[in-house]
């Protein structure tokens, strides 16, 4: 990374009248733009330990994504660090610019693998950027970035841990989907007893007995390189097949995606951010899932099962419950089912959050594209949030996939 004079500037965050209203001038903010992960790694790793943020904005997650996916898609890194006094970071914005057709687009790094987007924020961020002032800082950030046609900053929660997401001070629209999570507490049995109906518990026990009658039934948290690779490979294979059968987008078939899941899991080992696990009966893979562990939260992201062989026994629920037990045993309180409004999530979750999209155009070409994108996103939200329309759409999609 090299920093030019155009890439660094001080941003005065309040005007003269605000200075008069306040007891004194608010500290300035220094901006730096980084085009390589290596130039910001030390700062980023140290900052993410104390900053408010999500697993999707951790260094390991995004560096691995860029290595296997982002770089192949031609994404140019534009990682912005906002610095406060004493050269301490206030915020890290993992941004990138890519060419999509004739348009240059600014977006969050992580692409479609990120269920939650936003900055990493220092605990004292509002001491430097008070509520209502972020739009001024955003203008300064835009000024130090290369030119682009359109910004698509999608899937942003209103809160980043305990802090308001400053990007919601910009113009935003609701995403087509919400996200769901649950607090399990320290006693999984008590949590399970509260959440599941008598009928659900009875079915769970009955299906477990049928699985056990087929042979030795174990739940596996692989630790060796060979076993981790095998577990991820099988999960990806089953999930890819399930997506195709549904007529849904098989993102796992895209270049680098399967490699990303495997690489991040191997990099994480037993104590890192990524975790894969699965159920076996007599050595046969039954069901499994892949997720992220960060700051007392498990992000449940990729799950599938062997439908032809075990589907009648609802093995996905068996694997889910085992993963929840494991998480509680690790001191994890929040089980985050992340984006998507699938019905089964309502059986477990007491918390729903909205996600917000910021879209803006900087050029005439970008404005034309923005209008089309906004129309498509509005239609998508209407379909997803209207049960009869969504049910009809998914049935039609499956029908075409079966042809």
What number of structural domains do the residues give? 2
Number of helices: 14
CATH class of the largest domain: Alpha Beta
CATH topology of the largest domain: Aminopeptidase
User: CATH superfamily of the largest domain, called what?
Assistant: Gcn5-related N-acetyltransferase (GNAT)
Secondary structure class reads: alpha+beta
Residues in β-strands, percent: 25-35%
- Share of helical residues: 40-55%
Largest sheet: 9 strands, mixed
Shape: globular
- The tally of strands reads 18
Rg on CA atoms, Å: 23 Å
Distance between the termini: 51 Å
Mean pLDDT: 91
CATH architecture of the largest domain: 3-Layer(aba) Sandwich
Poorly predicted ranges (pLDDT <50, ≥5 residues)? 1-26
Walkthrough of the structure:
The chain is of the alpha+beta class and 403 residues long. The chain has helices spanning 16-21, 41-50, 59-70, 125-128, 134-144, 188-195, 198-213, 225-246, 257-268, 307-310, 315-329, 343-348, 364-384, 387-402, and strands spanning 9-11, 29-34, 76-83, 89-100, 103-108, 120-121, 150-157, 159-160, 163-164, 173-174, 179-183, 217-220, 274-281, 284-294, 297-305, 334-339, 351-353, 355-361. It has 2 domains: 5-176 and 357-399, Aminopeptidase; 185-332, Aminopeptidase (3-Layer(aba) Sandwich). The protein is built from 14 helices and 18 strands. Strands 1, 2, 3, 4, 5, 6, 7, 10 and 18 form a 9-stranded mixed β-sheet that branches. A 7-stranded mixed β-sheet has the order 12-13-14-15-16-11-17, sandwiched between helices. A hairpin with a 2-residue loop joins β4 and β5 (103-108). The radius of gyration is 23 Å and the shape is globular.
